[in-house]
Amino acid sequence: xxxxxxxxxxxxxxxxxxxxxxxxxxxxxxxxxxxxxxxxxxxxxxxxxxxxxxxxxxxxxxxxxxxxxxxxxxxxxxxxxxxxxxxxxxxxxxxxxxxxxxxxxxxxxxxxxxxxxxxxxxxxxxxxxxxxxxxxxxxxxxxxxxxxxxxxxxxxxxxxxxxxxxxxxxxxxxxxxxxxxxxxxxxxxxxxxxxxxxxxxxxxxxxxxxxxxxxxxxxxxxxxxxxxxxxxxxxxxxxxxxxxxxxxxxxxxxxxxxxxxxxxx
Length: 265
Prior knowledge:
Elements: H1 2-25, E1 32-37, E2 40-43, H2 44-60, E3 65-68, E4 81-89, H3 91-96, E5 102-109, E6 112-120, E7 125-130, E8 135-137, E9 140-141, E10 155-159, H4 165-168, H5 172-180, E11 183-184, H6 190-199, E12 204-210, H7 212-224, E13 227-230, E14 243-249, H8 250-260
Parallel strand pairs: 3-4, 10-11, 10-12
Antiparallel strand pairs: 1-2, 4-5, 5-6, 6-7, 7-8, 8-9, 12-14, 13-14
């Protein structure tokens, strides 16, 4: 327990320090490179921030595994301990909007989330949770999101592949969901959407594909306040799962899964 709390405190310090580095870099000329497409980008700041975390983890916990989006120092061993890092979730927002992006850090043991930290850098919002001890926004405890609600009354983040019409047509179930809810919101950063689920600003989240670093930290936060995560078929998922994801309160999640798997009307 003492070691877990020490790691948690260290990670909180590292995240806030990384946020200060980003604030210094954000108005400088950015070195931007394309990854898979013109909208899938990485900057030198992404890699700098990930390297900052990797160096700190290696210094303090050299036997731990690391999974980071930019693969700056990913390691895999038989250790049960794993850090999952997204140095800047929402890189396009970081480049174009100078806001609406976040640092995301999760720590896991044996494929179970131990703690998660998400930092909305420019808004100064630090979401964090350690399993079994509640979830917080800065110093304020977050309320449970488990409440009765009708899907039609909710705003939901629904993310589909927008670049290719033929690929979009492969996801009719997400369009059924979008048509049923009160409204759809898309932020360009998975962590930001899921954090709004944690505060009640959104009622649900569904995305055709996510990587572990997109959701791992905020998953710990949401599950601490009653949130439910699964794949789009409603199956349980591990902490390093990649694929379609649905998340909401238990009540709304059940309605989402039923609709997503109901077949064409």
